[in-house]
Every structure is written in C-alpha cells, then in structure tokens.
Amino acid sequence: MDLVIRDVRVIDGTGGASYRADVGLHSGRIAEIRREGDGGPRPTGRRTLHAHGLALSPGFIDMHAHSDLALLRDPDHSAKAAQGVTLEVLGQDGLSYAPVDDRTLTEVRRAITGWNGGAPGDTTVDFDWRTVGEYLDRLDRQGIAVNAAYLVPQGTVRMYAAGWDDRPATPAELTRMKQLVAEGMEQGAVGMSSGLTYTPGMYADDAELTELCRVVAGYGGYYCPHHRSYGAGALAAYEEMVTLTRNAGCALHLAHATMNFGVNRGKAPDLLALLDKALDDGADISLDTYPYTPGCTTLVAMLPSWAGEGGPEATLARLRDDESAERIRHHMEVVGADGCHGVPIEWDTIEISGVGDPGLADCVGRTIAESAAQRGEAPWATARRLLIDDGLGSTILQHVGHEENVRAIMRHRVHTGGSDGILQGDKPHPRAYGTFPHYLGHYARDLGVLSLEECVAHLTSRPAARLRLPDRGLVREGYRADLVLFDPGTVAAGSTFEAPRTLPVGIPHVLIDGRFVIEDGRRTDVLAGRSVRRTA
C-alpha cells in the first residue's frame, strides 16, 4: 500500500454504525479495509498513519459553493480544504462565467462581483474560456485544491440569449437557450441552476424553465433552483419548483432550503410535509442547507426585479435618478420587493459584510440602520449611496433565519450540506469557513440533532448519489481515496461572525486521490483537485 491508516474509527458514509479498521490506500483508491477482528494479516504500506482516536470518513461534498473564481485565484483554498471538503458544486444561483460570449462575460462579471470578485478590470484571473467545457478544462489545466463539479447557470444562459429584458423569451431565444444548456451538459455539467430572485434569470416563466429542465433531464442531470421566494411566498415557491420539475421529468435539488423572515417562523414542518408528499408520490428531490440562521447575498439583490432590467448600468442609472430611486425605496420598504422575497425590508437585519471600494470599509460589520444613524440620515439614503459608490459590489449578511427551522430541515431524509460560502469581503459569512465542522461539532456532537454517523451520510453519500458519482461518498474498497480524518471530540468551526476567516479545529488530515491536501492540520502544496464531469 501507499498508505495504511491504522486502527481508525471508520464512519463510512452509509449512516450505519461506525467500526474500527485498518484502511489501506493504493494508487489513489481505497484498496483494503480490514475490520477489527477480521482474520488474516493486517495491511502494510510504505507509510503508516496511526489514527490515535481519529475518525475516518469520506470527503465532504459542498453542494452549494461560490468558489468559481476562488479555485483559480487562490491555489491554497484552505477555506474549504481545511473543512474536509473534497468536492464543490459550482455555477450556483443561475449566475456564473460559462457559457458566455464577450458581452455576456463582461455583464456577468459586473453582476456578481460581490459574490466572487472578478469585476471588469480585475486582472487576477485570466478569463480565457467561454464554454462550460473550456472552463472545466481550465480548472484541470491549472490544478485546483479540491474537486469541482459545475451547474449550467440559467440566468447567464438567458443573459446570453435574450439579454436583460423582463419579458418572455421568443421562440428563437428559447431554442438558443436550450442549445446552450445541452452543450453545457454534453461538456460535463451535472445539471442547471437558477436564481429566481436574481435578474435576469427571474424573468423566466415556468414554461421557459420547464423546457430547459427537459433538456437537463435528457442528460440525467438535476435542476438546482434558488426559487422565487424564501419569505412571504416561500411555500408556494417550493411547490412551484416541485410541480415544474415533475412536469419536466427532471430531478430537483433545492438550494439552501430555508424558511426565513418573520412570516415563516416555525413553518419548516409545512415545507417538509410538502416534500414528503411529493417524495412518497415518486418525485426525485433533494436539498441542501447551511447550519446558520443568517443568509448572505449582495445588497443589489434586495432591489425589485424591475430595477435590474437592462443590466447593472441601467440599475445604477435608476439609483442615481431621484424619482426612480424613490420608487425603488417604496417597493423595498412598503410593498416588499421581490428581490427581498416579498417582505418589506428591515434595515436593522441587513449587515454589510464586504465592499469592493476600500474607501467604504467603515460600513463593514454594521447594519444599514446603524450606519444611517451614525450619518443622521434615513436608512434608504445610506443604502442608495452605498449601492452607487460601490458599483453594486457590496455583500450583506441578512439576519432573518430561525434556529428551529434550521434544525428541523437538517434532519430530513433528503438533506445534504451546502455552505453557500461567499469568500469575498472583509467580513464574510462564517459558513464559508465553518459549515462542515459546525455540522459535525455543534449540531451532531454537542446538540445531538443528528448522530455523527447520520451527519456524515448527509455530507458524503447523499450528495454523491445526487451527483451520480459511482466511486465517491463512501469508505469502500475500490472507491477514490477522498477522505477526511477528524477528531469527533474536538472538531469544531473556528470561524465566527466576529472572526469569519478562522480555520476549523479537529481536522488534521484531508486526502484527495490518496494525496494529503491537509496534513497535521496544515495545508500542503498539493493540487489534487480536478473537474468532476457528468458521466451518465
């Protein structure tokens, strides 16, 4: 063997009871598992690692990641590697960087600079791809810290084919969108994402989305929507996605499946009942969540959808115009903008977590209400100025979640883990650095919301099954040696809202293809990650 992990507690990803064993790795795969009490000789190798109370699990799969540029810009990528993440799913929320032409690339870079950086003029990443296949090839050519799968982003596809107009797509535009989705799937994407509270993807009606989902289904992929409301219309929005995908014959994976805002306090059981009924009727559904109550997005996402028509420059023009800006304010504060999930915005729940302009750094870590009070002005005046001065690049934490909902949803039979981790900003959400150890330490060990074995299954085999990965997600002979060694007694997220970039504790070793990415708690220089492409 290349490596033998001696006398380790194996939590194999099935959800079944753990057991003690020696695990031998060879040529990037799990070659032998010899359980305690088995007869025959123990495996030997060129190197032996004595577990000393550690548990061995499959590598964690982040079903909702925003590392699309971070993987290229930051080869270290300890934010995810140190958590035990060995695979991330990119292209989320309907907005990413492939497929594009030159116009679309410029527009999408501007639109999601708050998520990923990479604004026009930023030269830290060479955008030398245009198709999904070229993007995945770029990841492989450069070498990345962890593995990556990709979802075709429906909003980017609509931007490419139909621009930023709030209208139904023409037959020719819909044909072009279907072609782009098909090409992305053929080039290795595992499914399609949407951001149905983000422009321009939210301009698509159900008929358009159904046609695109039929294309995805034809390739055995899944649809991953950030649906139309997590607030006032949450249950109806979930039901819409269930109905739409069943009509399309497409598997459904619900992104960051939360029930937020005051209107949804204690309503997780209503969501789970809706999903259980569909599952019992034969629907193919899964979901992911992060184990925190606040959400995280961009400040511009809070605006009503009509304010985004025409693209980022048109949005800025509306914000600069007093009459249009007053109309935006009225929709946000009185009506409840669709960008804020149909709920009138509460400025004391909107905390600025990052800005693109360093001159605005004094806003970071404060709510809009706090900054406005300091300036002696109305909160909308502060928000409007920030949107304009930061070129729509500001990110926010939105403190609108409920702990009882978080716990109820993570117990569900189709639940998986997803960080939704935005790595940009001076004070990002701690979920970017802490999601997976927070599940293991806080929710499994400390609170007992899940057993440790169940929790590991949620983070490994369940997402691997959704992604249709035949040789990942379990500690099993013949499977890839994407593995995590952690201490069940001490594993914990180091990241907090006050110090969000702190790395976790209790995860000393992480391997990808049998190579140490984290060794003795330190990041190695190994770039073992590769693109993981649809194979079915």
How is this structure best described in words?
- It comes from Streptomyces agglomeratus.
- One of its GO terms (molecular function) is hydrolase activity, acting on carbon-nitrogen (but not peptide) bonds, in linear amides.
- Residues 51-518 form the Amidohydrolase domain.
- This protein is an alpha/beta fold and 536 residues long.
- It has two domains: 60-294 and 400-523, Alpha-Beta Barrel (TIM Barrel), CATH 3.20.20; 306-397, no CATH class.
- The protein has 18 helices and 20 strands.
- The protein has helices spanning 70-73, 78-81, 102-111, 113-116, 132-142, 154-162, 171-186, 206-218, 234-248, 268-280, 312-320, 322-335, 368-375, 379-389, 403-410, 431-446, 452-459, 461-466, and strands at residues 3-10, 19-26, 29-35, 48-50, 55-58, 60-62, 85-90, 147-153, 191-195, 222-226, 251-254, 285-289, 295-298, 350-354, 395-398, 415-417, 483-486, 509-512, 515-519, 522-523.
- The strands form three sheets. Strands 1, 2, 3, 4, 5, 17, 18, 19 and 20 form a nine-stranded mixed β-sheet that branches. Strands 6-7-8-9-10-11-12-16 form an eight-stranded parallel β-sheet.
- Helix 10 (268-280) links the parallel strand 11 (251-254) and strand 12.
- It starts with a strand and ends in a 13-residue tail after the last strand.
- Count of helical segments? 18
DSSP strand tally: 20
What proportion of the residues is helical, as a percent range?
A: 25-40%
The end-to-end span amounts to: 31 Å
Largest sheet: 9 strands, mixed
Total number of distinct structural domains: 2
- Reading off the top of the CATH hierarchy, the class of the largest domain is best stated as Alpha Beta
Strand residue content: 15-25%
Query: What integer value in Å does the Rg equal?
Result: 23 Å
Question: What's the mean pLDDT score?
Answer: 97
Which regions have little confidence, pLDDT < 50, spanning 5+ residues?
none
Coarse shape: globular
CATH architecture label name of the largest domain: Alpha-Beta Barrel
